[in-house]
Design brief:
Number of helices: 7
Strand order of the largest sheet: 1-2-5
Distance between the termini: 103 Å
Radius of gyration: 47 Å
Largest sheet: 3 strands, antiparallel
Number of strands: 5
Length: 263
């Protein structure tokens, strides 16, 4: 559950950071093209760093995601490599935001006059600079938060004796799923080969049968017929009634065995 949640977190964080990197590259390119021949602001370091960091983000993060989803055990998908690279990107984004904030604080009076001078071009450049600063701090926050979460999970797994530094989150998720399926199968009820289901055991074939010879009418107890002076071996049924049809069915005739009178 932890590794699947981290993979979802990584996908969302990488997607948002890639979009922010594309915006940073676009804004930085506009500022570079405008400020390289401008006497109001002049070219500074944060435009170049913003374009560089945005380009690295747009190129590397999709490559890492593609390698992780298409290959198992890729070098770029290792937890240690992922932590180091994303930490470096987060620090670069943080440095970009810090450079812009330092420039604005050191030129506060100048920027307050220039940005509110009334020229649309200058006002747009000031807006782009503030947008680059916000993007830089937001991207650094997302990357550092994910990197810190992954580092905490990796340290926890290392303390439990199962280090994950040289494996990927995809491999760890597969291992957890395999372990869960194995534990579930171990708790499943074991059916012995000689076991028969209850319905089969209680079927018609398993019902008790009468002892041999009970089905023979010759073995039925003999009854003395006082009227005719004979011995009857038939069952003591005289008539069978049918409740549905109202008819009466006579029992089969009794087998009479003549008996000689006693002398």
């Amino acid at each position: 559950m932890v590794f699947s949640g981290l993979r979802i977190f990584r996908l969302v964080a990488a997607g948002v950071t890639i979009i922010l990197g594309m915006a940073e590259v676009a804004l930085g390119a506009i500022l570079l093209s405008q400020l390289s021949h401008d006497d109001w602001f002049g070219l500074t370091a944060y435009e170049v760093l913003g374009v560089a960091v945005g380009t690295l983000t747009v190129l590397t993060l999709p490559t890492m995601l593609w390698l992780d989803y298409t290959r198992t055990g890729a070098y770029a998908s290792m937890v240690l490599v992922e932590i180091l690279w994303l930490l470096a990107l987060g620090v670069l984004w943080l440095a970009e935001g810090a450079l812009i904030a330092n420039y604005e604080s050191s030129h506060r009076l100048y920027l307050s006059e220039v940005c509110h001078f009334g020229l649309s071009v200058v006002t747009r450049l000031c807006t782009y600079t503030r947008a680059m600063e916000a993007i830089a701090f937001l991207a650094s926050s997302i990357l550092l938060l994910y990197t810190l979460s992954l580092l905490v999970v990796a340290i926890g797994q290392h303390s439990r004796g199962t280090p994950i530094w040289t494996s990927s989150l995809k491999q760890q998720q597969q291992k957890v799923a395999t372990a869960h399926s194995a534990s579930y199968s171990s708790f499943a009820p074991h059916v012995s080969p000689g076991f028969q289901p209850l319905m089969q055991a209680s079927g018609a074939n398993s019902l008790p049968r009468p002892a041999q010879g009970h089905g023979n009418t010759n073995q039925l107890p003999q009854r003395w017929n006082r009227v005719h002076g004979t011995i009857s071996t038939a069952p003591p049924q005289a008539q069978l009634s049918s409740g549905f049809s109202g008819t009466k069915t006579s029992a089969p005739a009794a087998q009479s065995v003549p008996r000689h009178p006693q002398v």
